[in-house]
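Dear H.,

Thanks for agreeing to be a second pair of eyes. The structure we're designing against is below in token form, covering all 385 positions.
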């Protein structure tokens, strides 16, 4: 009548210990007992099925309130808990494959394996801000320099012990808290007119982002975006803020350099900058996966190796397009014949002298011809007088 110890596997008959009276009723395992009696309300039916001599041997004249029935209720409740929390135990490897390392799980075909990172709580974000303020007292986190919650959750996923890995973050997602809030507010004010728009808004969770078409490579925009991204890494404790600033300063100098027109060179454009940033972060992720810290990996690429200079070096300026020929096939660079004889391009036509000495203007406009007077109207006027 002792309380049985439940094994880890509810289908293990070797560890199953119940009353001797339950064996003839067909209960062989814990799973049989738990699934046959899905609730405590079914226990009276089981008590009626137990023979009366069993209760007499237990000295229980009233089975419903006997100590044995109480232990049976406890056992049934523990069986339900064991079944609910049960996880299948993997089969032990065979002797032939004992020494072989386990094969990595193969990703399923036609499946989307990347998921959004878990959303950070307000308590976790506030703790990050307090640690940041203690480590860097001179840095101010306002609405324009504080990264958005989505960006902070992505960076925080980099440094999680089980599955943490550095991945390149698109520049469309590098938003500040103010930009993130403005996009959300603009989306809530947008009117949905069709049924398809209502269904897509209810089913699809569109991530707030800035399209590349609205980005312009200017020193102010680049400095603001870099500040938001490095603050996100520093808030998550990935690297020291001084290392991040040195890395961003190198990229800023390469991307915003002014080259004279005589050299025939230009700085990188927006798409070339995004491509270079992706290459650099892929190399940083490779070093980090080999055991490098993020500070050492960024210092390696910004001060030791020449990858940054090779990716952001000046490009050749495209030559100017040749001028198209003018009207009638005339060369547009060749000067014309001038204003002509007797013409002043800055004033009216100049009068010329004729052979008799009278002055008259050349090329006078043609005067409109006057109509002859009406003789009938003139004679009628005289008759009236």
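And this is the sequence the design step returned. I haven't edited it by hand at all.
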């Amino acid at each position: 009548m002792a309380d049985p110890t439940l094994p880890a596997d509810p289908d293990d008959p070797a560890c199953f210990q119940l009353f001797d009276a339950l064996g003839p009723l067909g209960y062989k395992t814990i799973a049989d007992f738990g699934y046959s009696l899905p609730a405590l309300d079914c226990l009276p039916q089981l008590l009626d099925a137990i023979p009366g001599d069993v209760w007499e041997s237990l000295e229980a004249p009233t089975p419903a309130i006997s100590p044995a029935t109480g232990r049976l209720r406890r056992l049934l409740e523990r069986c339900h808990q064991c079944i609910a929390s049960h996880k299948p135990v993997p089969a032990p490897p065979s002797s032939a494959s004992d020494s072989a390392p386990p094969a990595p799980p193969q990703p399923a075909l036609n499946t989307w394996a990347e998921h959004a990172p878990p959303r950070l709580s307000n308590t976790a974000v506030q703790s990050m801000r307090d640690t940041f303020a203690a480590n860097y007292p001179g840095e101010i986190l306002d609405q324009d320099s504080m990264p958005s919650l989505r960006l902070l959750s992505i960076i925080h996923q980099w440094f999680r012990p089980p599955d943490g890995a550095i991945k390149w973050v698109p520049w469309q997602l590098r938003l500040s808290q103010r930009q993130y809030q403005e996009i959300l507010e603009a989306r809530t004010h947008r009117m949905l007119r069709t049924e398809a728009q209502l269904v897509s808004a209810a089913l699809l969770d569109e991530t707030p982002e800035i399209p590349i078409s609205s980005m312009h490579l200017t020193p102010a925009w680049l400095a603001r975006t870099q500040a938001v991204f490095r603050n996100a890494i520093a808030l998550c404790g990935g690297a020291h803020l001084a290392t991040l600033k040195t890395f961003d300063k190198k990229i800023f100098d390469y991307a915003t350099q002014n080259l004279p027109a005589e050299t025939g060179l230009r700085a990188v454009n927006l798409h070339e900058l995004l491509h270079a940033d992706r290459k650099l972060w892929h190399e940083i992720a490779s070093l980090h996966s080999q055991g490098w810290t993020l500070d050492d990996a960024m210092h390696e690429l910004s001060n030791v190796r020449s990858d940054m200079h090779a990716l952001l070096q000046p490009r050749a300026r495209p030559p100017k397009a040749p001028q198209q020929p003018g009207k009638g096939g005339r060369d547009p660079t060749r000067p014309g014949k001038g204003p002509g004889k007797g013409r002043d391009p800055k004033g009216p036509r100049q009068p010329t002298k004729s052979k008799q000495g009278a002055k008259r203007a050349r090329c006078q406009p043609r005067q409109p011809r006057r109509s002859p007077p009406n003789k009938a109207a003139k004679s009628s006027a005289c008759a009236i007088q």
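Two observations from my side: The longest helix spans residues 270-289. Strands lie at 265-266, 315-316, 352-353, 359-360.

Warmly,
E.
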